[in-house]
Amino acid sequence: MSRLIIHFERWPSFRFLGVIALFGVILGFITPSYSDEELPQLGEHSSVNIDHEVNLGKGIYDQLLARGLIETNLLLNRYINDLGERLLSTLDSRVRDYHFFIVRDGSINAFALPGGYIGINAGLILSARTQHQLASVMAHEIAHVRLRHGVKLMEKSRSTSNTMLLTILAGLLAGGTELGAALVYGGTAGGQQAMINYTREFEYEADRMGINLLQSAGFDGRGMVEFFQILGKLSGNSDLGSIEYLRTHPVSDNRVSEAESRLLPNSVDSVGPDYFLLFQDYLMYILNDGVLPGSGQFRRALSKMKAGEEDTASKTLQKLYHGQSDNFWYGIAYAENLQMLDRKEKAEEVYRQLLEIYPDDYIISLQLLRLLKDSKRLDQALVIGRRLENRYSSNKAVFFELVDLYHLLDKSLMEMLAQADYHRLSGSPDLAIKLYSKVLDSPDIDLATESRIREKLAELRR
């Protein structure tokens, strides 16, 4: 297991988060007071203001993002969100969106923020052996959100001091640091211990819902049991005796036994190829500075790319891709390596071959768009950009690329409109409204565009 900590000390860590900066956000989640007549209903259909909950979670997420703690690679993000969406697909109803993200931290941890923001540390992903084990952790965190455990803590605060609850919540969020452990376990007051016990009850509830969610989505329920066992082995390792996930998700024999008792026979449903190990390899490639530990042809090729040995990497990646031309990971890595070798025409060929298999895929299309921009073939890039805009009108990454493309094409009005769309999707409504209004003031705007902008403005102002 030593491979899990190689180079991890170079990654950004929660210790840079500035826990004090989170206190104001978390305190806003704790302090609302309710009369006996307006106590919130608990559960997925609670009357608690979902928008308020989402804003709180997004506030913490934005702070993590601003400090470089969230991995933004589109390929990695899609894998983790596809996994999450598969779990969510079995829910009978949803009142919120869920957002899954990878935290650039080598510690073994995962957490659920208010509003459906679920973070999984890179260290935890690399400690898992299968997609089923990783999915079991995600299902557990989804259960925390769906059961509104954060809201229940807020209700509990009516009989517990806000300061105490704030301390515990801060400890839960700062689990990747010694400070986090100190905040959770540092006090001996009976009230604080009662709150810790209260949160442990949530673990059993989340386990029960999580394993049902896991198996309903066609994953192997043994993944949860296996991951408990992995955590148990790691906790006994002197080098990894301090497992952050265990501080906030303590594993007991009872939890393991209960999970085993809920296993269903033949629950596994194969949904497409399993690229989990390639996902792990690519995660290591993106996050590590040096040679990647471990074996496997794909990881060795990525390690050569990282070391600047693109010619050597190209031979392996070409062989892998030609042997499995529908493998998304092989194709993307091969095309990226070809671009490093300045073989842009060959890279374009690979991207277009992939698009024949995955029509209008936004990651492949964005990669091709960027390649065409670099090659100064702006009109061809614009064709792809407009197709992406029509198909992925809620994807801010698309508009980020369009802003630059319209700038290169000297289309200032379209550039401003793309900026407005980007800020709208990024959670900056005031700036989006300002830019939309400027576009409306232009005499060159057509009626169809004007109508779309006015609809967006009306939605933002609501």
Q: Describe it for me?
A:
There is one protein chain. The protein has 462 residues and is mainly α. It folds into 2 domains: 2-261, no CATH class; 360-462, Alpha Horseshoe (Serine Threonine Protein Phosphatase 5, Tetratricopeptide repeat), CATH 1.25.40. The chain is built from 23 helices and 3 strands. The chain has helices spanning 19-30, 50-66, 74-88, 122-127, 131-146, 149-156, 162-173, 178-185, 190-216, 222-235, 244-248, 253-261, 276-287, 297-306, 310-323, 328-340, 344-357, 362-374, 378-391, 396-408, 412-425, 429-440, 447-461, and strands at residues 99-103, 110-113, 117-121. A 3-stranded mixed β-sheet has the order 1-3-2. Helix 14 packs antiparallel against helix 15 (310-323) and helix 22 (429-440) packs antiparallel against helix 23 (447-461). It is globular.
> How many structural units, i.e. domains?
2
Count of DSSP strands? 3
Rg from Cα: 24 Å
Biggest beta-sheet profile? 3 strands, mixed
Overall form? globular
> Element order, helices and strands?
HHHEEEHHHHHHHHHHHHHHHHHHHH
Record the strand order, biggest sheet.
1-3-2
**Separate helix tally:** 23
Share in β-strands: under 5%
The overall pLDDT, averaged over residues, is 79
Architecture blueprint of SSEs:
Elements (H helix, E strand, L loop, with lengths): L18 H12 L19 H17 L7 H15 L10 E5 L6 E4 L3 E5 H6 L3 H16 L2 H8 L5 H12 L4 H8 L4 H27 L5 H14 L8 H5 L4 H9 L14 H12 L9 H10 L3 H14 L4 H13 L3 H14 L4 H13 L3 H14 L4 H13 L3 H14 L3 H12 L6 H15 L1
Parallel strand pairs: 1-3
Antiparallel strand pairs: 2-3
Helix pairs in contact: 1-2, 1-7, 3-5, 5-9, 5-10, 7-8, 10-12, 13-14, 14-15, 15-16, 16-17, 17-18, 18-19, 19-20, 20-21, 21-22, 22-23
